[in-house]
Amino acid sequence: METTSRVGADGAPSADTAEGVPATRRTVDGYLKAPFPWYGLDEAFTGRRWLMHVTAAADDTVQHGSTGHGEEPVVRADAGAEKARFAVVVTVGSSPVRDSDDGTGVLDATTVSSAAWLAGSGLLDCTWPPQMDHTLRGEWLNQQTETAFELADDLGRAPWSTLSLPVDGVPVDFHYRESEFGWVLAGSAPDGVHIGAYGRGMSAYGLGFAVIGDIASYDES
């Protein structure tokens, strides 16, 4: 798994998310710098599409990012906060084992586990368990994100199952799991890019993924 994904990871807990406010979206500029194609839901999805976050390395090389579909989820401690119907697609560029930016170590290659971790932590970041105040949520989030990391490192066993979904029309096997907070899946596109996704209120079973032809169209939503 990409070891640095746990720090500043797209979709992971960050200062960009405030109570009752959608996570801050970035402009399309960061997406345009990526050396890999971005993935989103295919044309069968006719709802709203929106940009989320892009994460880059110290040398400004884009590593991964997310695109949203449906209603933007908000983090809010009330009964209506988790009714948003959405699916977020995480695109992780293929990267081999390489030296760290500071030259002090080696970074693991990105894998399907990288996408699974980012998707799992992303789902948690837009979840607020009932009857939990702001202070307790921070502790809960730390515990749950550690669990999500451990789950992403062992995709071959329960609670993961296999779900076949089309990627640019080609059937691809994804690792899939459900929880009380929503669902998470992860797999690899035929071109080697890793795809993660998470959502709530929208069934994962009917989804399909495709390369985004014009990422700027998401910025206009």
From TrEMBL:
<protein>
    <recommendedName>
        <fullName>AttH domain-containing protein</fullName>
    </recommendedName>
</protein>
<feature type="region of interest" description="Disordered">
    <location>
        <begin position="1"/>
        <end position="21"/>
    </location>
</feature>
